[in-house]
Amino acid sequence: MANRTLASRRQTVIAIFLVIGFIYLVRLFYIQVVDKSYTLSANNNVLRYVTQYPARGLIYDRHGTLLVYNEAVYDLMVLPKQVKDIDTVEFCRLLEITPEGFAERMEKAVTYSRYKPSLFEKQISKETYGYLEEKMYRFPGFFVQPRTIRFYPKPIGAHLFGYVGEVTQGMIDKNPYYKSGDYIGISGIEKSYEEVLRGIKGMKIKMVDVHNREVGSFQEGRFDSAAIMGEDLYLSIDAELQEYGEQLMKGKMGSVVAIEPSTGEILAFLSSPSYDPNLLVGRVRSKNYRMLSEDAVKPLLNRAMAGTYPPGSTFKMVNDLVGLQEGLLDLHTRYSCQGKTSSPIRCTHTHQSPLGVLTAIEQSCNPFHWQVFRTIITSGGHGGIRNNYVAWRNHVMSLGFGQKLGTDLQFELSGNIPSAEKFDGIYGKGHWNALTIRSLSIGQGEILVTPLQLANSAAVMANRGYYIVPHVVKGIGEKHRKPANFKKMVSTIDKEHFEIIVDGMRQVATMGTARWFQIDSVTMCGKTGTAENPHGDDHSLFMAFAPADNPKIAIAVIVENAGFGSTTALPIASLLIEKYIKRKVLRKDVEEDMLNKKLY
Amino acid sequence: MRERRNLFSNIDVTLVVLYLVMVLLGWVNIYAAVYDEDHRSIIDISQSYGKQMIFIVSSLFIALVILLTDARFFSTFAYAIYGLTIFLLLVVLAVGSEVSGSKSWFHIGSFGFQPAEFAKFATALALARFFSAQHINFKDFRTRFLPLVLMGLPAALILLQNDTGSALVYSSFILVLYRMGLSGNYLLAGALVVVIALSTLMVGPIYVVVLITLMAGILFFFIKRNRRNIINLIAILLLGIGFTYSVEYAVENVLGEHQKTRINVLLGKEMDLKGAGYNVNQSKIAIGSGGFAGKGFLNGTQTKYNFVPEQSTDFIFCTVGEEWGFLGSLVVISLFISLLIRIILLAERQRSDFSKVYGYGVAGIIFFHFMINIGMTIGLVPVIGIPLPFFSYGGSSLWAFTILLFIFIKQDANRNALL
User: Nearest-CA residue of chain A relative to B182?
Assistant: First the structure.
């Protein structure tokens, strides 16, 4: 009896087995089928989304010489969630950072996100990467991401290329394309062609094991996207000319801009003092940037577009052009010059008197041009002094002065051709006249131009009346796609008047202030300028184009505090023209003089 | 001679087939858990799956030896075998080597050997011998006390080796005692103890005390209100309240920080995904991410890439859950429940008390491992490191379970022999 009762206990035992089995199956059904969060966690465990950074497009000069390319570096990334039990001391030793630096970086990363990778140490060297890669398994939570940084085979074109830096939070907020850690062009071509150069970011989904070692790609890379390299740029810059210009400008402050008149293509674009663009790359960038920005001679300043100078005598032809167009000046017009005793502006040269416009340009006669200017302002046909001034100003601005030219480079200044309102403000309306603003007649006073504008005005002269908006990029990508349409800007002055002025500029080079620097078999048309400068010695200026009848190059050279235009800016410009047109310089004495000239 | 000819025909094919299926599934899952591109062959003996194959083959050999041994050998030498394992447990305490905190291994060459695994079937044999040889009367002190000594001695020695999990396995013999006549109230009391302990930890002692008092109050109206019942009720109530506070006290003051955290993590009171909760969390992620049909053979990422610890031993079920999904889990759980029920049914048909008691011992041990091991991988019981029978990687464990099961199969095959 007792045994049979006890035998029935097997049912209880079996029931216990079944109940436990059932509970476990319900639980398994719940976590495996109902609750999807485990799948997500599993993916977070093993999947690592690695941004594939594209290399930026390469940059070539007009002849296909490679000027800017990329080098591989490695960013050390950290995923704070996975960092545990690492040998901090050894890690710091490998990276050559202090334990405090480690804590600081870690804290920054954690503040950003515990679950998303963030930059721990940027651009570690290949050697450090080598050491680290071997020991990576001992530092769970850390991994490296290959990046590229710029490299410049020739140390030229710093202001032209600009530089690349990491995006700031402000940039990220403004443009959602950018994510923390991305690179972006900060200035120069890198900035203005950022969207072309940057390429398209890709994404790789990798699987990692618990020790953070990569074990393969997710689903054979089905969801991966490759990074697409940025498009290459083909510049209008002539690398040899650029390099030669930078050599000639060594030890001098100032700028050189050369333009191909028929196309508006910039051939050389430099500001001096300059710096090796390789200094503003990678880990050394911020240190060097600070050093350069503290330098008294301001190597970071792009004088070619952001430097403004009084044009001095190089502006005289502009007055002549307005006079010719307004019918107040012709080839027969004669004005007298009393040389040093002239009033209100004295002449600095010795020449015949009275004289016509060609000789006045050739000899850079101040009194002649003052009288042309006075006639325009006083006797013009626009109804009063003020209106005549407004008409004068409109003509001047049609040559590209007093406004941004709209090039494909960043941070251009507009210079200054003062408005009538401005003079109203200074002197009171109706209380100013030609005499009050007489300095304008010789390119002094309130007038300011950038070297780019000056070169552009030389291109206008070369083209006899128009310019194409200057630009540095000729073609984009494999097919040399045209960049934006650079407009042809026609001046308000007729072509025939330019012919007269060009004749005058030709005489400058053959008989006038530039006669000592003629180039064998190349006729240059130019004009020197010696601009008074309230801050120190006169600036030396020269603007020119050549050859006279089929212009290939228009150029402006400004050398700060170098005195007469004919002693520094002119020889440099003539050497550059020779270099560009003849591809080599024969006047070695002139070259040597200029290379050795140190002004600061 | 007639007996011997019938030897294999009397073997319970169901149990043998279930055993073979589970061992093979275990092997395949060990292969998947530690699969290594460089060692693709499942029989590569430099890898754990290759070694497991050796364990399986040797287990089959051991099974054959057991089947060829006279069934009476085990009942005759039950105490001797028990005595030998107790001796081994003592020796291992003295000269054994430590593996992950437990001093429970003999190392002979590259092979390790864990006497605790073998003490299980030895204890089952001893208990079977005890209950078959004596007139059983649970009112008798000897009947109550001696089995506790038989169970407690190896458990205590294993506890001294610092292998709590294996020691807890001995509590599974309560099934044997129950079957042999121990009052069901002990099972109930045991269940109640677990419930009270867990709810105390989860909601705090005050609520539990209020609840117990309330239930006692309700019971008061349903029982015959004679003097004895009332005294019993009050005694149980006081015991319950006392127990509630001792649990609270034990957790706060007796248990180490480490055990306390484990309990809190299990109860969901604490999220410690890097420390104590890491294993369970990763294990749940692995199983949970398997979905309904699983990721497919060798496609599991969580176990293979070592997110789950001990993925071929204690956490082998994760591979099943991840690669074979809910369907795979269903198959494995069904296999275990079928095996357990089959053992119970076979035990009940035994004419000898020895075989019957031994059968219950086998079922209890396997059930305890099954419940604790799978329970911990899905976060229902605390992490206690004991293997999943027949599945987990390891020679000692597989041999011990094979011996455990095949002694029963042998006893069953021999059930018609004269006592």
Answer: A6
Helix (H/G/I), strand (E/B), else coil: A468: strand
Q: Closest Cα partner for A289 from A141, A163, A417?
A: A163
The range of the structural domain enclosing residue A96 comes to: 49-156+203-233
Per DSSP, A559 falls in state E
**pLDDT tens-digit readout, A449-496:** 999 999 999 999 999 999 999 999 999 998 889 888 899 999 999 999
Count CB pairs under 8 A between chains A and B.
118
Which chain B residues are within 8 Å of A46, Cβ to Cβ?
301-302, 305, 307
Q: In chain B, what are the helix, strand and coil shares in percent, each to the nearest 5?
A: 70, 5, 25
Chain B contacts in chain A segment 175-234 (CB below 8 A): 207-211, 215
Q: Round to whole Å and give the CA distance between B334 and B344.
A: 15
Of the candidates A528, A457, A504, the residue with the CA atom closest to the CA atom of residue A357: A504
Residue A144 and residue A21 share a domain: no
Q: Which two tokens stand for residue A32?
A: 């495996």
For B306, residues 6+ apart whose C-beta sits below 8 A from its C-beta are: A209, A210, A211
Domain boundary among A213, A233, A253: A233
Domain count, chain A: 3
> How far is the CA of A108 from the CAs of A82, A115, A138, A284, A342, in angstroms?
15, 13, 22, 21, 71
Confidence of residue B269 (pLDDT cuts 50, 70, 90): low
Chain B residues 158-177 within an 8 A CB cutoff of chain A: 175
Q: Which residues of B touch A16 (CB under 8 A)?
A: 367
**Residue A168 is assigned to a structural domain of this protein:** no
Q: Which residue has the tokens 């030396």?
A: A540
CA A106, A110, A112, A117 dihedral sign is: positive
Closest chain B residue by Cα to residue A13: B175
- With b for 16 or more beta-carbon neighbours within 10 A and e for fewer, the A189-218 pattern comes to bbbbbbebbbbebeebbbbbbbebeeeeeb
ipTM score: 0.88
Q: Please write the tens of the pLDDT for every residue from B91-138.
A: 988 887 776 666 777 776 666 778 888 999 999 999 999 988 766 777
Of the residues B197, B228, B254, the one at which a domain ends: B254
Question: What pLDDT is stored for residue B133 in this prediction?
Answer: 76
| Chain A neighbors of B179, CB-CB under 8 A | 6, 9-10, 13
Residue found by looking up tokens 């809910």 in the block: B326
Single out the residue of A199, A197, A213 nearest to residue A58, CA to CA: A197
